[in-house]
């Protein structure tokens, strides 16, 4: 689904940061845009910065379910500082997976903004999860029945089938020398 990203430019609070940029909203089903001005109130300007596809994958339904069950279901916009051009940021992608968003925050090169999902987008993601989500069955791993912690002095590893003593402990060597 194509989703438009709305970025807000507001005056900074300090002299070192002249402008504060934040992602404020998403527009599900939006058409193409390239930094189209939506609204201006004094020095605060909102732009329809870009329209990027929101892709859902069947293997990530657990992450989508985690995002939907949060107090405020959200999507995450991943941006990077632009190398060239008049606008300071380049929108890379939008995701409904909090796990994928966390992966992008690990590098520190990208900026990840959390935006509340509109109700229509929540319904669309929930419908996808209901159709494709399969609970993973928990399978408890069983250990070998052989106990390897019961070793006598000088006997060596019980898992090695060998008649001779392969590991001679220092205490056994002392007894042999006396």
SSE arrangement, N to C: EEEEHEEHEHH
Q: What general form does the structure show?
A: elongated
Low-confidence stretches: none
Oligomer: single chain
Helix content: 10-25%
Average predicted local confidence, pLDDT: 84
Total number of strands: 7
Task: Tell me the major beta sheet.
Answer: 4 strands, antiparallel
Going by helix content, strand content and strand pairing, the class is: alpha+beta
Terminal-residue CA separation: 83 Å
Strand content: 25-35%
Number of helices: 4
Strand adjacency order, main sheet? 2-1-4-3
Computed over alpha carbons, the radius of gyration is: 29 Å
Structure description:
With 178 residues, this protein is of the alpha+beta class. It is built from four helices and seven strands. The chain has helices at residues 61-68, 98-107, 119-132, 170-177, and strands at residues 2-11, 19-28, 36-41, 44-53, 74-81, 89-95, 111-116. The chain has a four-stranded antiparallel beta sheet, with no helix packed on it. The protein has a three-stranded antiparallel beta sheet with strand order 6-5-7, covered by helices on one side. The longest helix is centred in the last third of the chain and has 14 residues, at 119-132. The termini are far apart. 20% of the residues are buried.
